[in-house]
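Aim 2 progress. For Putative ABC transport system ATP-binding protein, the working sequence is reproduced below.
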Amino acid sequence: MITLTGIEKYFFPGTPNEIKALNNINLEVARGDFITLIGSNGAGKSTLLKAIAGVIPVDDGHIIIGGRDVTRLPEHMRAMEIGRIDQDPLASTAAELSIEENLAMAFLRGKRRGLTRAVTTNRVKEFRAALKDIGLGLEERLKVPVGTLSGGQRQALALVMATIARPRLLLLDEHTAALDPKAARLVMNITERVVNRHNLTTLMITHNMEQALQFGNRLIMMHRGRIILDIGAEEKSNLTVADLVAKFSSCSGTVFADDRVLLA
Ligand SMILES: Nc1ncnc2c1ncn2[C@@H]1O[C@H](COP(=O)(O)OP(=O)(O)OP(=O)(O)O)[C@@H](O)[C@H]1O
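Predicted structure tokens for this construct:
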């Protein structure tokens, strides 16, 4: 489904401040994989997701999505294939637009049509069904401005928005990190439901090691621009957070350092 070969990304190349954010990343992601991505501070996790989405260009290597080499394609030309959510609920949805307008906007992502034509009766039915599925009652509030929703409700809506056009790939960059623990749990449960229902291939960055172990069928750990650990469902299901921290130390040769990491 996705193949990354030899991905390299530098910031400030050729200067004393040069940073090699991605260092020879090679990764095969199968259709339906739900990968949790953890790592030390500045390991390159966000840069990797941004490179896949085309938000930043890479300096070397190839990115193949669904058999197509998208390495040189700009972000908007990958948008139909990829749903993305970052950690900020304010950024992932448009506050002044209604729930249905936000969904219409998401539905038309990457297509050349006006917003007014987007909210047709059939689409509204589809939006209602997708919202009903996440169980927050938002399907009864289609005309409500999104700015009046809570952070958790906005991230749940962002999930529906990111998946309404059935992307090949879902990229989640700490999408529950800005929420209180209860809302974070709710949004994670909704995430799992949406991913399973549509069999979405998913990459999710998290600072919560429990979350990284609990969700998905594969776990990847990064350190200094490299993938240092890649474990499958069976091994993952037998690991504890302490095991994971110990594995990090043995693979990286350093103590796990992440000032935001949640060990439990
Ligand atoms: N736009 C940018 N300009 C310059 N340097 C950047 C930029 N984005 C990231 N970096 C640097 O690249 C490295 C990787 O950053 P990245 O944000 O991908 O790490 P991360 O694993 O997501 O980190 P964290 O978990 O701390 O958010 C870091 O050293 C960071 O400072």
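Residues 11, 19, 21, 39, 41-47 surround adenosine-5'-triphosphate (CB under 6 Å). This observation will guide construct design in the next reporting period.
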